[in-house]
Write a structure and sequence with these properties.
The structure is a homotetramer. Chain A has seven helices and no strands. The first copy, chain A, has a single domain, classed as Up-down Bundle (I/LWEQ domain). By secondary structure, chain A is mostly helical. The relative contact order of chain A is 0.13. The longest helix of chain A has 29 residues. Chain A is elongated and about 60 Å long.
């Protein structure tokens, strides 16, 4: 019904556009907003959240590829879970600019903005877990992992999802902490070894 | 004159950008617009129409692939019909943000916005039908379906087109109803079985 | 130095994004701008220029593919001409929204907007011709066409370039005429037969 | 863990979107801003910086492809360096529009805008160098170049990075000079011969 190649191409396109749209919110007030140097300093939440979200989307894309490369076939439900994941990915620029905006104005609503930001990440993390769990249950993987590795992988996904819950809770302490935790998570995933591990010869 | 692969790549690109541009209209007034939590609640039409349009574009993309994978060759007219389809797909973010905007302000023009929204979907649905009908008539399919299956497929396309006419009519009752109907249609198509059915081995 | 496949993939991406960005300028004033139906009618230049530009970009993409599929190899200069072409393609949404804006306000500057619009199309047309002429001169084509066909093809490209000069001149009479001429040209190219003609089996 | 093909597809997507987003900042004040011809003349920094940035991104894309086509495999660290490179590429439209904005208003902050512009280019240049150096050290290249060619290539990369430092320094003299230098650099790279040289048969 759907070959993997085209699902990956479409998903890659969505990831690429979403990661680039993040940059639309880079931007300062302009000449009428006072010295540019001061504006750049004052806009630090915009730049910090840009970097965190950029690497977060980048790493989801890497993991998306790693996961789908293990699948022998796809079914309708998997397409749905993939669309759900992409729906959260596409919402990241919105959550990012909202968080940056509220951090910059030191508004009391910044806590809600932190909740929104980590909440979108949580939705993304849960959709990703759903894709993996569905692949296991529906037998879509070409080489189903042995039980112990399976448990370990589900645990790892659960840990990611739990981390974003912690990041949501952190928003009540300080939404800046939410951003820091999301940054640490992205950094962790960049360098973490995945079960499917190992390099492959280039195609 | 045109190989299928590059038409699909271009179409995938357009689908991917269009689905991501939907998120440009996510966005609240910002710190000067009062508590964020209240703004998020008041912007419910923005989020609801985002979800409906996201899955609608997603599902058109899935069906687009399913349909083109059946074609053995393409001709100039098919390129035109495909461009027409994409023209409506690309207009969906505009129709979505207009509907959300008018729903949110409870304006009397919301009915026109509902008509616009379902009308763009109708244009998309009719272009899609045109692609299928042209493929049948010009003998572009690699395995032309038997007459009865053919009739069934045309009927199914016609049903989709008719449903959006109903969604247009519903705008006179309530544009929210239009959005709900469009959501039900997208949900139906996500889980519906298509004639070309079955999973395929990943390429 | 550069394989054709990746140049096409990059170009396809640029075409796909440029064609979708056209839709960013669809958009009305919103609830505070009076009845939506009246706004939609008053915004007719926005919709008309959207349709013309959409099909123009679509058809350049088709012709881009047809031309590059004839090339056996690429050189640095060809990459430059291709970037120049893409630079004009990417400027089309800007030229389109400027024309629509000035047509809508019936401003006296609409003539300049018409010149800008047809001028960007002219730049695109000339870059396209440059790609073809360079391919002939540098021997990049896999099957160099015989002299008479060669002359015919160059003539055809020259005709396209001349047509946009006419469209530029027409802006002094009426910028609406410029838009109509551009629309006729796009329509002509959609259904025109190209020298490389014929359908191909899908890859 | 990641095949080259999909990394290239994703990177191509990001390059394509970033290069197209440059055009979002083309745009004049509109009918209420006086004669269009005068507006177009006054907006010259917008158009000049658009051309320079367009060719800069275009040429990075060309070099990105040339470099990755030499790699036999990828590792996690290389994915990170690639994401870092893309993060700077995606920031170019922001740096471009800021520079154009400040040049146009003749603000005293234009020096800072010039620093920002050349600084983003510098970040991009350094990330690119990091990708090459890492590929050498981690043995990712399929045909590691001999020591002398290796030194020459690293020198060439270093020269690019040094050039952007010069462009940053030039901002203190005149930010227009920064733009001119960046333009010269892009032009130089378009026509420069790269070590991996030579044309290849199209795939």
């Amino acid at each position: 019904m759907m070959d993997r190649g085209r699902l990956e191409a479409f998903s890659d396109g969505v990831f690429a556009v979403a990661i680039t749209l993040l940059a639309l919110d880079l931007g300062v007030t302009g000449p009428e907003g006072g010295p540019l140097a001061r504006q750049l300093v004052e806009h630090w939440p915009v730049f910090a959240s840009y970097v965190v979200s950029f690497f977060t989307i980048g790493i989801i894309w890497v993991n998306h590829h790693a996961l789908f490369s293990l699948m022998a076939r796809l079914d309708r439900a998997q397409l749905f879970w993939n669309l759900l994941l992409l729906m959260f990915v596409v919402a990241i620029p919105f959550a990012t600019s909202t968080l940056a905006d509220y951090l910059r104005h030191g508004s009391r609503s910044a806590t809600v903005a932190g909740l929104l930001y980590a909440g979108v990440m949580e939705g993304m993390s849960l959709s990703f877990t759903a894709i993996f769990v569905h692949a296991l249950r529906a037998g879509l993987l070409s080489n189903p992992p042995p039980p112990e590795e399976r448990r370990r992988a589900v645990l790892q996904f659960g840990l990611g999802a739990a981390s974003y819950v912690v990041a949501m809770a952190a928003a009540f302490v300080s939404p800046i902490l939410t951003l820091i935790l999301a940054g640490i998570l992205a950094g962790y995933y960049v360098f973490q070894h995945t079960p499917d591990g190992g390099d492959v010869e280039s195609a």
